[in-house]
Amino acid sequence: MVVKVAVIGAGPTGLVTGMGFARRGHDVVAVDRDPGPPVDGSPWPRRGVMQFHHAHAFRAQVGDVLRAEAPTAWDAWLDLGGEPIEMPLPDGRTVTAGVRSRRETFERAVRSAAVGQPGLELRTGHVDGVTVRGGRAQGIRVDGSDLEADLVVDASGRSGRVNRHLRSAGIGGECGIAYVDRAYRLRPVASMPPMTNAVAWQGNYSGFMVLVFLHEAGIFSALIIRSTANRDLLGLKHARAFEAASSAIPGLAAWTSDDVAEALGDVLPGGPLLNVYRGQRGPSGDLALPGLVFVGDSVCTTTPIFGRGLATSLTQVAELLRLVDEHGCDVQSVGEALDAWDEARMRPWVEDHIAMDHAQARRWAGDDIDLVGRLPSDLILAAAARDPSIGEVAGPYLSMQALPGVLDSVEERARAVYRSGWRPQTDPGPTHDELADVVAEAVASA
Ligand SMILES: Cc1cc2nc3c(=O)[nH]c(=O)nc-3n(C[C@H](O)[C@H](O)[C@H](O)COP(=O)(O)OP(=O)(O)OC[C@H]3O[C@@H](n4cnc5c(N)ncnc54)[C@H](O)[C@@H]3O)c2cc1C
């Protein structure tokens, strides 16, 4: 039976959901206030999605879900320049560990595939609310007009407010960490500086952290990450200060020095970063509204440092599609089963980030490692430098094949490492106070 589906939001989650339903023969309308990329190829402003222009890393799960549920989007991504990262396995096979791409390249590809998807209509408009009949969703109201649907999918992202009043408060909030980033392109003659893993280079310093995410065609983003409580590094949003800081951090200078790369645009100050989980339920504990389901960042958003957002979002889309295949129009069963999946498979990542980010901000402020509570996951992994047996479970956690709970089995071993007095080494470079001086001097001389 054909189900009429209305999707609120045509970001990556809404579009892949829409394509998945349309490919199953359902009748789908996805509504977004953003009209999509300009047809003349000029930059896509994408107001309302602050992360659109920021650095993104794409995990294997993103490609896996696209290939299964929206193969034309996968093909379009490769055509636009997305570079799959092929990793050899010990048995001779290769796996795709992720895709090197900018967010804009990725989203343009998904959007162009969605435009060509029979059965999926993209409409520009503002969704004012969900219409209700007989205690269940019966459609959406778009700029004052009603659109009937058997199932409403809220893919309105981390800032979506349209159905906020129907939902329980959830867990989490601002994560306490902020960053600025800037895009660069490697010069053709330059050789690639060292990477920490297939997607990124990471430097850990006293009071801050640095990441480089590699995108397509030699383009990369450099991020300097700090605690929001620490305002001394706010000046990094000025290009001159960012450049002075990059030169002062040897591992970052290896990427950004003038002979290695050219800057592609302004320094981008990040907005507030969140660790928030809201499932499918309302304040009473029942489903927020039968016939209305929430997907993507509207359910789960995590600090971007680990680049998990699109992996959790699209994996959940695949599960929603599977549940509708199984339960059809029984929207109560779909909502209940999706909530159970969210609790089991999304919430643990948010809890993991809340614990890690809180502890990281405290350590950046000068606290020692807290050996009483549960060790945060990043510290468990860091202890593998001292006790390599801890590293055995690192791979499945880092690739998100296993949930954070997989680290429980080695937590005590990590605690023993820290009890011995060992602490993770920082990389060669300035302390936070030294970097703050560099920033202040650059801002003053601007
Ligand atoms: C700074 C930052 C960096 C990130 N880096 C990474 C990374 O490296 N790797 C990674 O995997 N993830 C990353 N993420 C997370 C990733 O960006 C999100 O997971 C992703 O955007 C989720 O897609 P979405 O479609 O659910 O939401 P969004 O992309 O936010 O899309 C929601 C859409 O809904 C529309 N909308 C909302 N309300 C309405 C309404 N009432 N009417 C009409 N339209 C509406 C909006 O216009 C928007 O188009 C990052 C996030 C941030 C904040």
Please tell me about this protein's structure.
The chain has 446 residues and is of the alpha+beta class. It folds into two domains: 4-171 and 273-345, FAD/NAD(P)-binding domain (3-Layer(bba) Sandwich), CATH 3.50.50; 177-272, D-Amino Acid Oxidase, Chain A, domain 2, CATH 3.30.9. The protein is 33% helix and 23% strand. It has 13 helices and 20 strands. The chain has helices spanning 12-23, 60-69, 71-79, 103-115, 239-248, 250-256, 309-327, 331-345, 347-364, 377-382, 394-398, 408-419, 432-444; strands spanning 4-8, 27-32, 58-59, 83-88, 94-100, 120-124, 127-133, 136-142, 145-148, 151-154, 171-174, 177-186, 200-205, 208-214, 219-227, 261-263, 268-269, 274-277, 292-294, 300-301. Strands 12, 13, 14, 15, 16 and 17 form a six-stranded antiparallel sheet that branches. Strand 1 (4-8), helix 1 (12-23) and strand 2 form a beta-alpha-beta unit. It is globular. The relative contact order is 0.14. The structure holds flavin-adenine dinucleotide.
**Count of the domains:** 2
Based on CA inertia axes, which overall geometry fits?
globular
Q: Indicate the CATH architecture of the largest domain.
A: 3-Layer(bba) Sandwich
Major beta sheet summary: 6 strands, antiparallel
Topology, number of strands = 20
CATH superfamily of the largest domain: FAD/NAD(P)-binding domain
Tally of alpha and pi helices: 13
Short description:
With 446 residues, the protein is α+β, with helices and mostly antiparallel strands. The protein has helices at 12-23, 60-69, 71-79, 103-115, 239-248, 250-256, 309-327, 331-345, 347-364, 377-382, 394-398, 408-419, 432-444; strands spanning 4-8, 27-32, 58-59, 83-88, 94-100, 120-124, 127-133, 136-142, 145-148, 151-154, 171-174, 177-186, 200-205, 208-214, 219-227, 261-263, 268-269, 274-277, 292-294, 300-301. Bound molecules: flavin-adenine dinucleotide (FAD).
